[in-house]
Amino acid sequence: MPDQQTDQLEQLADPRDGIFRVERPWGNFQQFVSNERVTVKIITVEPGHRLSLQTHDHRGEFWQVLDVPIEVTVGDRTWSAEPGESVWVPVGAVHRMANKGDQPGRLLEVAFGEFDEADIVRLEDDYAR
Questions:
Q1: Positive or negative CA dihedral for 19, 89, 9, 14?
Q2: Contact 60/38 with Cβ under 8 angstroms?
Q3: For 14, which of 46, 86, 88, 117 could close a Cys bridge (C-beta 3.0–4.6 Å)?
Q4: Cross-strand partners of 65
Q5: How far apart, in whole angstroms, are the C-alpha atoms of residue 21 and residue 41?
Q6: Could you confirm whether domain 4-124 is CATH 1.10.3370.10?
Q7: Is residue 16 classed as helix, strand or coil in its secondary structure?
Q8: pLDDT in tens, 12-67
Q9: Is 82 exposed, middle or buried (0-12, 13-18, 19+ CB in 10 A)?
Q10: How far apart are alpha carbons 17 and 15 in whole angstroms?
Q11: Has residue 83 got a pLDDT over 80?
Q12: Predicted structure pTM score
């Protein structure tokens, strides 16, 4: 019998569906998530580098590309995600991000579920970890 946490992770909806933008007199804001258990990071990928090809058993990840195009892989698909583009990585999906440009690139990452760096299963790694 699966535990409750596994059931909840499998039912994680793509959070991009809940993103909204609100205009204000001073400009606007985008809201990505509200009242959820998450871990938030900004990841910087240096030019010519990439993260390991990996999976996670206990979390899904939402990425928002911030500065420069970043090559992303999710499942069988690889593409150049442009600044402002959002990406959903479901629990268990094979994924990677790479910077093929000539300046550092940043991504906002919101991880949904149980966050633990030990949850990384590396399938390929340029740094032999």
A1: positive
A2: no
A3: 88
A4: 107
A5: 21
A6: no
A7: helix
A8: 777 777 777 888 888 888 787 777 788 999 999 999 999 999 999 999 999 999 99
A9: exposed
A10: 5
A11: yes
A12: 0.80
Can you say how many angstroms the Cα of residue 101 is from the centroid of all Cα atoms in its chain?
Answer: 19
C-alpha triplet 115, 62, 11: angle, nearest 5°: 75
Amino acid (1-letter code) at residue 37: R
Nearest Cα to Cα of residue 48 among 71, 75, 81: 71
Which residue matches tokens 């992303």?
A: 72
Q: What is the sign, positive or negative, of the torsion defined by CA atoms of 64, 57, 90, 115?
A: negative
User: Burial letters for 105-120: b for 16+ Cβ neighbours within 10 Å, e otherwise?
Assistant: bbbebbbbbebeeeee
Strands 20-24 and 77-81, sheet pairing: unpaired
> Torsions phi, psi of 7, nearest 5?
-60, -45
Q: Which phi and psi (to 5°) does residue 125 adopt?
A: -150, 125
Amino acid code (one letter) for 9: L
Q: Is 51 in a helix, a strand, or coil?
A: coil
